[in-house]
Amino acid sequence: MMGAMTDPTGPDEYLLTLDCPDRPGIVHAVSGFLTERTCNILDSQQYGDPETGRYFMRVHLAPLDPTVTADLLGTEFVDVATSFAMTWALVPAAERTRVLIMCSREGHCLNDLLFRWRSGTLPVDVVGVVSNHLDLGGLVEPYGVPYHYLPVSSETRADAESRLLQLVGDLNVELVVLARYMQVLSPELCRAMVGRVINIHHSFLPGFTGARPYHQAHERGVKIIGATAHYVTPVLDDGPIIEQDVVRVRHDQGATALAAAGRDVECQVLARAVRWHCERRVITNGARTVVFS
């Protein structure tokens, strides 16, 4: 079941992910390469997209020979990857992704991610929190995570984003999570961080733009609300979708109840998206994603 906790990984296990133009022989080439190097395939998932003509694969493997290291596998896999024009990555399965969380004044997604990280159920290392407000500093303090205050205005936006990119570099940040960060990132920043920024927003209220969307939804009598987690691109809220979920609401639930239900589903959807990204289960496929269970 997607979203469930995975079994602990050993120190000598690796994740190989790849995508390439689809043609015969890909599985044979990859599995043959690993077999020749006495690697045990613990799990393998693949998908060929008939619309884009691309092939996607995620392999969880464990070398049985201690002399077969990640560096050796990576060096020798280059020939296979080149012959199939693959985009690929090989990383230790137990490697924890270094994450920077960004927020504004709403703390539900931030608190949920911090709790999951601290309790050991989210395979990340939270290396900092960035906010354009001071409101959530007290929430973050007990977790012992540095809180970086970066105010943003039309006059200071460029400087704030420059400082953010410097922070990303200084902290070796691999993933930025927008946990209800209520600022639009510039196209330049989006391009600099392509595939490395995940956002959460209310997805099933597309007709309710601007402030107080749940109040607008209540006034229109909606029966379903939800949330979408997606990668950030220069086009606002148009990036490849990673995860979505919904919850049904009743006619007797007011705007406050709708907002509470929305906060719950936002937390769940964002946490799943971050987990799957960090477990190398998500591969972009043009404007869409392939998400392996």
Written description of the protein model:
- The chain is an alpha/beta fold and 293 residues long.
- The protein has 2 domains: 14-92, Alpha-Beta Plaits (2-Layer Sandwich); 97-291, Formyl transferase, N-terminal domain (Rossmann fold, 3-Layer(aba) Sandwich), CATH 3.40.50.
- The chain has 8 helices and 13 strands.
- The protein has a 7-stranded mixed sheet, with helices on one face.
- Helix 3 crosses helix 8 (255-278) and helix 7 crosses helix 8 (255-278).
- The protein is globular and about 60 Å long.
- It starts with 13 loop residues before the first strand and ends with a strand.
- The model is unreliable at 1-7 (pLDDT under 50).
What is the level-2 CATH architecture name of the largest domain?
3-Layer(aba) Sandwich
The N- and C-terminal alpha carbons lie at a distance of: 7 Å
Q: Give the helices and strands as they follow along the chain.
A: EHEEHEEHEHEHEHEHEEHEE
Counting DSSP H or I runs of 4 or more residues, the number of helices is 8
Counting DSSP E segments of at least 2 residues, the number of strands comes to: 13
Radius of gyration: 21 Å
CATH class of the largest domain: Alpha Beta
Q: What is the count of distinct domains?
A: 2
Q: Write the CATH homologous superfamily of the largest domain.
A: Formyl transferase, N-terminal domain
Overall geometry? globular
Note the beta-strand portion. 25-35%
Strand numbers in spatial order across the main sheet: 7-6-5-8-9-10-11
